Amino acid sequence: MNNARSKKWYDHLWIVELCYLFLGLFNILFAWLGMLFFCIPLLIAIFGGSKAYCNRYCGRGQLLGLLGDKLKLSRNVPPPKFLRSTWFRYGFLTFFMIMFGLMLFSTYKVFTGAPLSQTVTLLWVFKLPWQWADVSFVAPWAGQFAFGFFSVMLTSTVLGLVTMVLFRPRSWCVYCPMGTMTQGICKIRNGKKEKDYGRTGKEDSGTAETAG
């Protein structure tokens, strides 16, 4: 008897994640599509009061699970406890949002006349030249936002891949800024304990929550 759950359409959203990354390599303006990955989880948390996106629709989480579990690219060991600690998760969220704000400020400067910087910044330090990208047919600020946003998406993907290899496949979900943000929104919106809303890192770190 086959007890495996039948596949749903949302079980294949990892393909969307891969397509997004590849499209961004060929045309940086596709980076704008990443705003969907940014806005949809927030809208679900704000209006639905749940972390359904993280639990069901996150293509990146599915991709990391596929690479780590199916292809055995993960060491599959629990990540360090500090990764799922409150201070680290909210500290990383704060840092991530500061860097996101700086990216928006760079876009604003180009909007007000500063020259366009055709580089993708990986891990906030390494500037990768992206001279083949043709953004001449859009406003310079739109191109600058695309470079900045793709930098954010590529950096978070690399971090996810590194922690996938070193620890459990979906260790990124433990400290993902979007997951932390939506979890906080659900906690505020519903007035219940934070652990009641989706992934808290227990599934991804391989630890069980103590009862009582």
TrEMBL record:
<feature type="transmembrane region" description="Helical">
    <location>
        <begin position="20"/>
        <end position="47"/>
    </location>
</feature>
<feature type="transmembrane region" description="Helical">
    <location>
        <begin position="145"/>
        <end position="167"/>
    </location>
</feature>
<feature type="domain" description="4Fe-4S ferredoxin-type">
    <location>
        <begin position="30"/>
        <end position="75"/>
    </location>
</feature>
<keyword id="KW-0812">Transmembrane</keyword>
<feature type="transmembrane region" description="Helical">
    <location>
        <begin position="87"/>
        <end position="108"/>
    </location>
</feature>
<dbReference type="InterPro" id="IPR017896">
    <property type="entry name" value="4Fe4S_Fe-S-bd"/>
</dbReference>
<keyword id="KW-1133">Transmembrane helix</keyword>
<keyword id="KW-0472">Membrane</keyword>
<dbReference type="Pfam" id="PF12801">
    <property type="entry name" value="Fer4_5"/>
</dbReference>
<feature type="domain" description="4Fe-4S ferredoxin-type">
    <location>
        <begin position="153"/>
        <end position="194"/>
    </location>
</feature>
<protein>
    <submittedName>
        <fullName>4Fe-4S binding protein</fullName>
    </submittedName>
</protein>
